[in-house]
Amino acid sequence: MPKIQWDPSFSVQVPEIDEQHKEWIAIINGLHDVLMNGVVSSETVHTQLTRMLEYVRYHFTFEEQYMQSIDYPLLEDHKEEHRAFLLELENVIDTERQGKIMLPSEVMQMLVHWLKNHILSADKKYMLPSD
User: Fold this and answer.
1) Would you say 7 and 18 are in contact if contact means Cβ atoms under 8 Å apart?
2) Count of structural domains, the chain
3) What is the pLDDT of residues 8-59, one digit of tens each?
4) What is the pTM of this model?
């Protein structure tokens, strides 16, 4: 599975959030490098997944505060998408902690697919109209 690359179509026209999405992509790509490297220690995988979870929580909090500041009408639906993803990511981390086999390609596919879909569908909805 190839790494995810930032694409201008991902922009939500909010510079801080675009930069956070770029950082999230960098974290996903770092995890890609670790998982696809072949022989990987569980400690390294755990460190990368925990780093991602911490960043995702930070990003979701920032994004939700931004949406609240613009009175975004679909905020609660958006928060629910965030909660569902956090649960999914926490489940991946729990599975890894228990020493169960995780297929790197499945983990990467889930992360890349969710982020791309979320930005291009849910996040694009809160974009302010251009003048």
Assistant:
1) no
2) 1
3) 999 999 999 999 999 999 999 988 888 777 666 677 778 888 999 999 999 9
4) 0.89
Which tokens is 63 given? 């994004």
Give the span between the Cα atoms of 100 and 60, in whole angstroms. 28
Is 85 among the domain residues? Answer: yes
| Concatenated DSSP letters of the chain | -PPP---GGG--S-HHHHHHHHHHHHHHHHHHHHHTTSS--HHHHHHHHHHHHHHHHHHHHHHHHHHHHTT-TTHHHHHHHHHHHHHHHHHHHHHHHTT----HHHHHHHHHHHHHHIIIIIGGGGPPPP-
Question: What range defines the domain where residue 85 resides?
Answer: 13-125
Residue 5, domain member (yes or no): no
Give the tokens for residue 28.
């996903």
What's the CATH code of the domain at 120? Answer: 1.20.120.50
Instruction: Report the distance separating Cα 11 and Cα 124, nearest Å.
Output: 8
